[in-house]
Amino acid sequence: MNNIKVSENFKLSEFQCKCGCGQVKLHSELLGRLQAIRTQAGRSVVINSGYRCPTHNKKVGGASGSQHLFGKAADIVIVGMPISQQRKICEQHFGDGGIGYAKTYTHVDTRGQKARWTY
């Protein structure tokens, strides 16, 4: 599974649960929006956290209804871009979804309604 390309710039393994269980879910809308960010930015987008299995989500303190559980969320970093600029690009592509602002990464999701918060 490690080398399966799911878009021009992303592999399925990048979205796999980080606990080592091997599980992965990836919603096509999330992938499409992340690829659009990658294309616009012209820089690599690192997926710090994609899908989370229920056990891992609980372990990391994720919300019980986290969009990560459904393959609809990712915590990302756009390599070499100031966090303030990353936030602007995320607002362009996830304006109607969830965006969580942390100091070193941005959470984005396709929940279907606008939601904003800071970690």
Task: Outline the structure in words.
- The protein has 119 residues and is of the alpha+beta class.
- The chain has a single domain, classed as Muramoyl-pentapeptide Carboxypeptidase, domain 2.
- The protein has three helices and five strands.
- It has helices at 28-41, 54-59, 83-94; strands spanning 45-49, 73-78, 98-101, 106-109, 115-118.
- A five-stranded mixed β-sheet has the order 1-2-4-3-5.
- Strand 3 (98-101) and strand 4 (106-109) form a beta hairpin.
- Helix 1 (28-41) crosses helix 3 (83-94).
- The radius of gyration is 13 Å and the shape is globular.
- The relative contact order is 0.17.
- The mean pLDDT is 96.
What attributes does this structure have?
Muramoyl-pentapeptide Carboxypeptidase, domain 2; 119 residues
Spatial gap, N to C terminus: 32 Å
Number of helices: 3
Strand arrangement in the largest pleated sheet = 1-2-4-3-5
Q: Give the uncertain stretches in residue-range form.
A: none
Percent of residues in β-strands: 15-25%
Main sheet makeup: 5 strands, mixed
Task: Estimate nothing, just give the exact number of structural domains.
Answer: 1
